[in-house]
Protein 1
Amino acid sequence: MLADKQGKLFKQWLGEHKGLMFKVVKAYAASPQDRDDLFQEILLQLWSSIRSFQGNAKETTWIYRVALNTALVWKRTEKRKRKRSRTEFLDIQEISQAKGDCDELSQNQHVLDQVYNSIRQLPKSESSIVLLYLDGLSYDEMADVLGISKSNVGVRLNRAKKKLAQLLKGLIDDF
Amino acid sequence: MTFDELQKAWQSQQTDPKLAIDPDLLLKEVKRNKEYFESAIFWRDVREIGAGFVASVFLFAGCVFFWLLGLKNFVWPLLLLTVLGTGVGTFILVDRIVQKRKCPEHGETLMGYIESSLTQVVHQIWLLKNILWWYLLPLGGGLLIWFSSCGLMVIMIKGMKASLGYLFFILACIVGTILLYWGIYWLNQRAIRKELAPRKHELEDLLNSLKNANGI
C-alpha cells in the first residue's frame, strides 16, 4: 500500500472512529495518563496494521480488533519503558458536548462512569465482549472480532452481563 | 435500568476525544514514532548480532596472527572460540528472522492475536531457560579452553615458577568469566520469573477464558 494512501486511510479512520477507540481506551485505562499512553499505542498499531488491511473485514471490525488486541496486551510497566524513548504527541481531553438537558446529561455521565469502572473490574476477555455488546455489534460481528464461534459469543456474553449486573447492583435490574 | 436502556445510553455518549493537534500533524508524529521504533529495533539487532560477527572476525584475525608467528598451539583454541562465536551469532540471527515472521498482526482476531503472542512468550521463555546451552556454554566454554590453553602454553614455555604471575592473571580471567556468565544466567532466569512467566500465565488465562465457553 502506498504511503499516501495509508496516510489518507489513517486520517479517515481517525476522523470516523476515534470515538470507538476512545471507548476501548476508557474501558482499559483508568487514569488520564494511562489513557494518553494507550490511545497513542492504539494509533501506532492502527497505523502499522493498515498495510495488512485488505478490505476482507469491515473497517469497524478491523479497528475493534486492533484496539482490543492492543489494549489486552498493553501493560502499564511496558508503556512507561517505551514512553521514555518516544515523543508524546497526544494530549487527549474528553469533551462533553452539552446538548439538551444538563441534569440529564450529567446523570447519564455518572451512570456511564460507573459502567466504565465496572467494565475495568471484569476479566479482560469479558470486558471486550461487553464493550462490543454495548456498542451494538451483532453476534456475527462479535464472533468476527474475537475469533470465537457465535454460540460461544452467546454463552460468554451472558456470563459477562451477569457479572456486570452484579457489579452494577442497583443500576441494572435485568438479572 | 435494563441492559437495553444501558446500551442506548452507552451509544448516545459523547466520547469524541478532543485531540490537541490536527490530524495531519498527528499522522506525521505517528509515522515518525513508528520509524523511530523500527530503526531502534533494527539497530539493536545490528548491535547484538553484528558485535558477535565482528568479534568472530577479530578472533579469526588472531588465529592468522598466531599462525604467522609460528605459535600454532595458540591457534586451535582460538579457532574453536571463533567457530563457537560465529555459531552463536548465526543462531541468534536465524532465530530473530524466524520470530519476526511469526510476529502477531494487530488486525488478527482477538483469539489469533493472543495465540500468536503466547507462542512468542513461550519461545522467549524457552530461549532464556536454555541460554546455558546455546549461549553461555559455547562462548564460556570456548573462553575457558582459550584461557586454559594459554596457561598451559606459558607453563610449557617459561616453566611453572616463572609463569606464576601469568597464571594468576589467567586464573582471574577464568574466575571473572565464570562470574560474568553466572550473572548473565541469573539475570535471564530472573527475567523469566518476574516478567515472562506471569505474562505467559496472563495470556493463557485470557486464551482459556475465550476458548472455554462453559468455563471448563
Protein 2
Amino acid sequence: MLVSEASSSAIVPVFMPTDSAKESSADADRELVRRAQAGEMAAFDALVVKFSPRLYGMVYHMTSNREDTNDLLQDIFAKAYRSLPRFRGTSSFYTWIYAIATNMTLNFLKKRKRRAAWSLDDIDTGIQNDEAMIDIGHAANPRHQSDVNELQKKLNEAMQALSDDHRAVVTMFDIQGIPHAEISKILKVSEGTIRSRLFYAHQQLQGHLEEFIR
Amino acid sequence: MSNEEEQIQKLIRLKRYEVPREGYFDDFLEEFQKRRDGDARPEAAPLGVLGKSIAWFRSVGSGRLVVASGLAYAALIMVVLMWPKGPESRPDNREPVIFQPIPDQGTPPVPRKPEDQQEKF
C-alpha cells in the first residue's frame, strides 16, 4: 500500500554527488584540513558544519536514539580534532572521519548492549511527527497518517533487528546513498563483503516488512 | 535485483526524512566549540588529569570495576603467598654432612719416656 506511494515520490538522495562535484569538494576539504592542521579553528568548524548532518544520519540510524547520537557525534568530532595532526591525507577526509564515526558507533553499540538498563523502549519514535515524512502521503488523510506511523515504527524495529554490521551497510548504502567502493574503504572490508551483507540484510528486512511490500 | 528487494530499498530510503529539529546543527557546533575551548584551556590541565580519571572510571562501569578489583586482590594474595620468605624458612638444599672415621695412615709412634719404663718394672 504505502510503498507504491513512496516509490512515486521524488526522493532526493542525501549523498549522491557527481564526480566533478566530488572532486572539488575533496579539494575544498583538503584545504580546510591543511588550515585546521595549521591551527586555524575556524577551518575545523567549517568541516564540522559540512560533515555533521551526514554523520548525524549515520549515527542516528545506527543507534535509533537522538540523545546517544548527539553525545556520540560530539565525541566523534572531538576525536577527529585531536587526531587531525596525524591525518596524512592518504584517504579523503570524508572517508577518514566516516571511518572514525563508524568504529566509534559500533563500539558504542557493543557497550550499550552490555548495559542492563538499556532496552528497546529507548529507541526513538523518530519521524512519527516529521512533517516531511507525513507529507509524502497526504497528511490530510488520518488513515494514511496512521499507516505512516505504523510503517515508521516497523522500519525502526526492522532496522534494530539487524546485526550492527548489517545495519551499518544498510544505513550507508540504502539510506545515505554511499557507493559500495566507498563503504568498503570506510569499513576496511572487500566490496564483495559489502554486497553480501546488503543481500542478507535485505532478505531479513523483507521478513520484517512483508506487509508493506505486498 | 528482485522486485521485493527494490521495494525494500525504497522503504528504507524513507528514513532519509528523519532529521533533527531546525537549528540543531547550530547548537551542535556551539556545544562543540565550548567543549574544545574547555579542553584547550591551559589552567584546566591539572584538573584535566583528574577529570579524565573520573571519566574513565565512569566509562568502565561499576560491574567491571568490581570484577577487576576482585582479580587484582586475588593476584595480590597469590603474590604474598608465593613470595620467598627469609633464609631460615628456605628449604635446606645443601648436602648433608656425613662424619666418617679417618682411616689410619700410619701415625708415628709416640716415644715413651724412660721414667714410664722404670715404673713398670
